[in-house]
Write a structure and sequence with these properties.
Strand order of the largest sheet: 6-16-15-14-7-8-12-13
Helix content: 25-40%
CATH class of the largest domain: Alpha Beta
Strand content: 15-25%
CATH topology of the largest domain: Rossmann fold
Structural class: alpha/beta
Length: 302
């Protein structure tokens, strides 16, 4: 996913949309990446290493080899300072015309951070959302019924028959045909998905084999889901990945190395896994996604 050039007719040509695990197809003097399922018989594809060069990411020099807590993933760093730095990078990116991509897992809702993320969407900080059926379902459940997986978010207590609440909201959305229709008729009047519809923030909900329902907006074909995500990546300059192993790594595979990437998860192994799969630009922040979003909203929206 590094910036790549190929040699064509005695000059170097940039490869459009750098992405890992893709072929480079050359047409009409231009070179672009293509996932393997989009390469067709007869396409001129770059093979071998000759005539190809990449531009590695710049790394800071002069670091002290004996520094404490100097790794890119650490659970022992002051979180408010880290969040402030992330907020500063987001501000700078947006001021330069960049776009912020949020990649979210359902734990964002379970931890009570849905209102903070909705506020970031409403205030114009989030430009694209990637998530799964679970995130959208529990966001809607929390805003319609006040629960997430049957747990009252204001009290942290389960309610009777609450385990079926998410199924009830799925059925209501399916009855209406889409999340947007539920917003239009007033069934859904708050939350992250509501703000995305209201402010025309595009989203991709990629399904999995264990989804309930799913919601009608969910892509159940993984190839179609990946292509829909891929179409929204151009222009993204900052990616914020929150408590989602599956969608974070999938998104990391689509992003150019130049996209500033922040992965927030309570599990340090998840944070490390993204870099292990090639997204070396990612900065891992080991903390609760709910606490992180609350602090980020304070920095950006106050």
């Amino acid at each position: 996913n590094l910036k790549t050039q190929v040699r064509l007719d005695d000059h170097w040509v940039d490869v459009d949309n750098p992405e890992m695990d893709c072929a480079v197809v050359v047409r009409d003097g231009a070179a672009t990446t293509a996932p393997m399922h989009r390469v067709h018989a007869g396409d001129p594809v770059v093979v071998g290493l000759d005539g190809v060069r990449v531009q590695p990411l710049e790394r800071p020099r002069g670091a002290n080899p004996f520094e404490f807590m100097a790794s890119e993933v650490s659970s022992e760093k002051p979180k408010d300072v880290l969040v402030g730095e992330v907020a500063g990078r987001i501000r700078a990116s947006k001021a330069a015309g960049g776009r912020l991509l949020a990649v979210c897992g359902p734990a964002v809702i379970h931890t009570g951070a849905g209102p903070d993320l909705a506020r970031l969407v409403r205030d114009g900080w989030v430009d694209v959302l990637f998530a799964g059926n679970g995130f959208a379902t529990h966001d809607i459940e929390s805003n319609v019924l006040g629960t997430s997986l049957g747990i009252l978010l204001e009290q942290g207590l389960p309610i009777e028959h609450g385990h079926s609440n998410h199924l009830r909201v799925i059925n209501e959305i399916r009855r209406r045909g889409s999340i947007a229709a539920a917003v239009s008729d007033g069934y859904l009047s708050s939350g992250v998905m509501y703000e995305c519809v209201r402010h025309e923030v595009p989203y991709v909900l990629g399904g999995s084999v264990r989804d309930d329902g799913p919601l009608p907006d969910v892509y159940t074909d993984v190839v179609e889901a990946a292509d829909a995500m891929r179409a929204l990546v151009p222009g993204v300059t900052v990616a914020l990945m929150l408590a989602s192993t599956l969608h974070a790594i999938a998104t990391g595979n689509l992003l150019p190395a130049g996209v500033e990437t922040f992965l927030v998860d309570i599990n340090q192994a998840v944070v490390t896994k993204l870099a292990d799969r090639g997204s070396h630009q990612a900065l891992g922040i080991v903390t609760d996604a709910g606490l992180f979003l609350g602090l980020l909203a304070e920095h950006l929206c106050s």
